[in-house]
């Protein structure tokens, strides 16, 4: 690298906050290169974000700037373009590949900016593209990708075979919650302590709200997720040493009084760039090999990081910007205002009210409430997929464009017609009843389809199958469920009930 290149400023986005984004040995800027960070208020005007999400992002950015000291110039501006002009004028700048199509298009349109390869993932764009192109199909399956990643990165492998003889131990990770239990009884997840920077962030957000400059949804309780590398490492260590052992078996279970169960709560730290996925999966594997956790827990966690998270990132880029517009089921209903406002009082369905209240208070809930309660409800009611995607993006502390487009358009709403999943992820109330303790106190009955006690999920499930019968009965994984419609003696009554239902 020339002396001129060593002096080129490097721009860090707010989700590129870990040391691997400034490591010259890993494709980062020169060790002497000055750094630039831009806090653009326009980002928070564009969407009505959850207040806890806005707090976490700003806190993480300002903490990172404080750590970097004199090496970084931290600019608060109205827009990125304005901040860049103030910081460097027309001088050249480098930046690692951003995490959204819009951000990438923006930086590529700036003549002074040179885009470096993406960081924060196990697989490069080129490697994924080669793998996907070799499939020779429009349909990509996460399980195939996951096995490939395990082999190429030597994760949970014994020679050329998967550890334990099986690639996927998901069948061991679907146990319902222990009967009669209100919690799993495991040590609590790591919780950070706020600093003076958090107080400054909260003051700024209060002022923006008072001035009517920016609007938020949800509550800003004491910050619940790491905002620094040190905090993120502490959270990772606590999970691996004290919570990973019980993660696998009850990974898909839900308990009203135990919001976190044994989940890692590391997604926001990974998505801010505070943690590198390699260190997460390597620590989990090391814990298993030392005898500290069962294989199904280690494999389940590795599959979440090296399998699903990695797959979602690459699907987002491989399918391109138009993927977000998918609407294979032609769903066009508007999101109701109560859902957008996270108003738990607006529904009598206990599971839905409980999860909305949790999201409103924390900006987080684990993957089963997201998929099988929030996402399933939206799918059954035919809400417009792009609006649902935007809602998830805004409402969760770990929500980013690359995260939510494939997760919602592809998996949750089946709006891509099956390009990344083999079937819609939805169910009646029986599944929620089996996997949670949320149905007992509910005024609705999960086994009832029609009438005053009819569970909205049970009735909604059958209504969805009927509405898309022609499509679903051509799906090998759906045909048995679709044929169940013919055994419903009250189908016409159910369909009339659902036509009259008001969300």
Protein architecture, described:
The protein is mainly α. It contains 22 helices and 7 strands. The strands form 2 sheets. It has a 5-stranded parallel β-sheet with strand order 3-2-1-4-5, sandwiched between helices. Strands 6-7 form a two-stranded antiparallel sheet. Helix 5 links the parallel strand 4 and strand 5 (113-116). The mean pLDDT is 95. Pfam families: DPRP (PF04244). Residues 171-193 are annotated as: Disordered. This is Cryptochrome/photolyase family protein.
List the helices and strands and how they pair.
Blueprint: H1 3-6, E1 10-12, E2 35-40, H2 42-46, H3 51-68, E3 72-77, H4 80-88, E4 93-96, H5 101-108, E5 113-116, H6 125-135, H7 142-152, E6 157-158, E7 161-162, H8 196-210, H9 229-243, H10 267-271, H11 277-289, H12 295-319, H13 337-340, H14 350-362, H15 367-381, H16 385-395, H17 401-412, H18 429-435, H19 456-467, H20 469-472, H21 479-483, H22 491-500
Parallel strand pairs: 1-2, 1-4, 2-3, 4-5
Antiparallel strand pairs: 6-7
Helix pairs in contact: 3-8, 7-12, 9-11, 11-12, 12-17, 14-15, 15-19, 16-17, 19-22
For this entry, give a set of tags.
22 helices; Serine Threonine Protein Phosphatase 5, Tetratricopeptide repeat; mainly alpha; DNA Cyclobutane Dipyrimidine Photolyase, subunit A, domain 3; two-stranded antiparallel ribbon; globular; five-stranded parallel beta sheet; 46% helix; 7 strands; 503 residues; Rossmann fold
Q: Can I get a quick summary?
A:
With 503 residues, the protein is mostly helical.
């Amino acid at each position: 690298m020339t002396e001129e290149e060593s002096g080129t400023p490097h721009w860090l986005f707010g989700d590129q906050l870990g040391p691997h984004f400034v490591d010259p040995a890993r494709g980062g800027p020169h060790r002497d290169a000055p750094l630039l960070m831009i806090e653009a208020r326009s980002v928070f005007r564009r969407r009505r974000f959850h207040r806890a999400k806005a707090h976490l992002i700003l806190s993480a950015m300002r903490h990172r700037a404080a750590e970097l000291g004199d090496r970084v110039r931290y600019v608060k501006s109205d827009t990125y373009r304005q901040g860049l002009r103030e910081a460097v004028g027309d001088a050249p700048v480098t930046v690692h590949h951003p995490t959204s199509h819009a951000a990438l298009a923006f930086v590529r349109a700036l003549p002074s900016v040179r885009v470096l390869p993406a960081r924060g993932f196990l697989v490069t764009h080129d490697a994924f593209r080669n793998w996907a192109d070799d499939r020779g199909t429009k349909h990509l399956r996460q399980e195939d990708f996951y096995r490939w990643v395990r082999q190429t990165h030597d994760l949970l492998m014994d020679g050329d075979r998967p550890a334990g003889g099986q690639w996927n131990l998901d069948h061991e990770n679907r146990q319902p919650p222990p009967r009669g239990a209100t919690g799993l009884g495991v040590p609590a997840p790591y919780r950070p302590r706020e600093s003076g920077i958090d107080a400054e962030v909260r003051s700024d957000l209060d002022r923006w709200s008072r001035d009517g400059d920016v609007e938020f949804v949800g509550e800003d309780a004491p910050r619940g997720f790491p905002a620094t590398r040190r905090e993120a490492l502490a959270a990772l260590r606590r999970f691996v040493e004290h919570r990973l052992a019980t993660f696998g078996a009850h990974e898909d279970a839900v308990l009203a009084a135990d919001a976190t169960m044994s989940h890692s709560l590391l997604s926001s730290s990974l998505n801010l760039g505070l943690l590198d996925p390699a260190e997460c999966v390597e620590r989990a594997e090391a814990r298993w090999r030392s005898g500290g956790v069962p294989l199904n827990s280690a494999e389940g966690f590795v599959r979440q990081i090296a399998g699903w998270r990695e797959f979602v990132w690459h699907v987002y880029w491989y399918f391109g910007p138009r993927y977000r517009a998918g609407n294979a089921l032609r769903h066009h209903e508007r999101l109701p205002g109560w859902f957008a406002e996270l108003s738990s009082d607006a529904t009598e369905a206990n599971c839905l009210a409980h999860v909305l209240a949790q999201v409103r208070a924390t900006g987080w809930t684990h993957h089963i409430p997201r998929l099988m309660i929030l996402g399933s409800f939206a799918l059954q009611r035919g809400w417009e997929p792009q609006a649902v995607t935007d809602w998830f993006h805004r409402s969760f502390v770990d929500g980013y464009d690359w995260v939510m487009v494939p997760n919602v358009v592809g998996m949750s709403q089946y709006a891509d017609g099956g390009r990344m999943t083999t079937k819609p992820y939805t169910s009646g109330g029986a599944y929620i009843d089996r996997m949670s303790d949320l149905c007992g106190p509910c005024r609705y009955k999960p086994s009832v389809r029609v009438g005053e006690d009819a569970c909205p999920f049970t009735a909604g499930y059958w209504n969805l199958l009927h509405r898309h019968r022609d499509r679903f009965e051509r799906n090998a994984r759906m045909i048995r469920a679709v044929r169940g419609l013919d055994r419903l003696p009250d189908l016409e009554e159910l369909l009339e009930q659902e036509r009259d239902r008001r969300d």
